[in-house]
Amino acid sequence: MTTLEPHERMDAGISVKFQSPHIYESLTVEQNLRVPLQRTNREIETVLTDTLDRISLETQADASASDLSHGEKQRLEIGMAVTLDPKLMLLDEPVAGMSIDETADIAELIRSLHDDGMTFLVVEHDMEFVRKISEQVTVLNQGSILRQGPIGGHREWWRSSSNIFGWERMSLEVTNLNAGYDGTPVIRDISFGVDTGEIVGIVGRNGVGKTTLLKTIMGLLTPESGRVMYDGEDMTEKSADTHAKQSIGYVPQGRDVFPDLSVKENLLIGESIGGDDKTRYEQVYDYFPILAERKGQSAGTMSGGQQQMLAIARALVGSPDLLLVDEPSEGVQPSIVQSITEDLRQINEEFDTTILFVEQNLSVIQGLADRCYAIDHGTIVDEITGEAVSERDQLEEYLVVWLFN
Q1: 320 near 273, Cβ under 8 Å?
Q2: What is the CATH number of the domain that holds 53?
Q3: How many C-beta neighbours within 10 Å does residue 217 have?
């Protein structure tokens, strides 16, 4: 292709879309789509209908292109390229300047076109978007290839590349979340975020909404309003099993192991987490050797601490990217609490597993959390970061029930 002119490359099946929208502002949406069709022998009316539907602009066909939002203009230009039925589409930063929702729309459009057989080469620095659409990635630095290969599921690759370039890696984002039971509000207007690889604690006294928050994030409780985003996906109204398939593990308060099943049978249930067949039995048994020794023992006959280890192990077997843990110290003797705290920290460091945990045990919070959000009366009242996590007085303010003023 090296010697071909741009129009000859287009005729050969290559389309390109540059960073800023190149559309005809004075024309309508439909008229813009008709322009490239003049170069083809395709059935114009059929192509127009299909393309308008594909780029989700069918209701704005007669609207002036100048009246479209930035995201809609980007979709229109992609649509103009699609009308040519290219084999390869080149996209230059297609989500630059877009909102989260607009970015999600473009990702969905690209995936849909790819599913129909179209090949894409995308230049982009929004790395969450890249993770969403890409099968392979090439990292350029100072004009040279620094890294090249698949990124799906390769957390060590992703982590090291992110550290080199300072990419933002938001794993979980909760926005204006409200939820409760039978019309009674429990959590109110909760907003916070957790970056990939972080360990974040939700701290507070009994009854302030910590468990309700975790259940809502996991899809066990449908929120009244607000949004839960995970890895770029809107998970707000999706079921708990969908969360599990999206590689989110959950350790409920009170452990909830199956008492009549053996240790091994309980662990088998954890294989449903994640979207592939990858498991971590070997690592789980390394962290919790007591479970390896008692594979055939009924879970109901184990101590509280051993059941907690089993509950955590069950969530880890399926190799989750995000682990939600509700009060890991509850009903567990101090020596085992310390061991569980150390194990969770090591799991985070070894596998880059993001951990969001609920806790009111001061030693667990200080030994585990990179930072914390304090919750009171269903609302986040403080974020505790850096050295403040190790300051007992600041944490106790949100953990101790004061009987006298």
Answers
A1: yes
A2: 3.40.50.300
A3: 27
Could you write out the DSSP letters of every residue in 234-245? E-TT--HHHHHH
- Read off φ and ψ for residue 27, nearest 5 degrees: -100, 165
110 in any annotated domain: yes
Helix, coil or strand: residue 14: strand
Distance between CA atoms of 21 and 66, rounded to whole angstroms? 11
Contacts of 257 (CB under 8 A, 6+ apart): 266, 299, 300, 307, 310, 311, 314
Residue 229's Cβ-side half-sphere holds a number of Cα atoms within 13 Å equal to 20
299 phi and psi angles, rounded to 5 deg = -60, -30
Q: Provide the sign of the torsion angle of the four alpha carbons 331, 334, 339, 342, taken in this order.
A: positive
For 70, other C-beta atoms within 10 Å of its C-beta total 14
Shortest CA distance to 327 belongs to which of 186, 214, 164? 214
Residue 214 and residue 129 share a domain: no
Domain of residue 372 covers 171-254+320-399
CA distance 226 to 177: 4
Structure-token pair, residue 243: 């969360």
Instruction: Judge contact between 240 and 218, C-beta under 8 A.
Output: yes
Segment-wise mean pLDDT, segments of 10 residues, the chain, 405 residues: 87 87 91 88 89 93 92 91 92 83 87 92 82 82 73 49 53 91 90 89 89 94 92 88 89 82 88 71 86 90 87 86 88 84 88 89 88 91 85 77 39
Grouping H, G, I as helix, E, B as strand and the rest as coil, residue 372 is strand
Cβ–Cβ under 8 Å, residues 201 and 359? yes
Domain membership of residue 196 (yes or no) is: yes
CB atoms within 10 A of CB 403: 5
Q: How far apart are CA 135 and CA 283, in angstroms?
A: 27
pTM, whole model, 2 decimals?
0.59
Q: In what order do the strands lie in the sheet with 119-123?
A: 14-17, 88-92, 119-123
DSSP state of 53: H
Q: For 230, how many CA atoms within 13 A lie in the half-sphere containing its CB?
A: 25
Q: Total domain count for the chain?
A: 2
The CA-based angle 243-245-251, given to 5 degrees, is: 55
Q: What are phi and psi of 10, to 5 degrees?
A: -65, -45
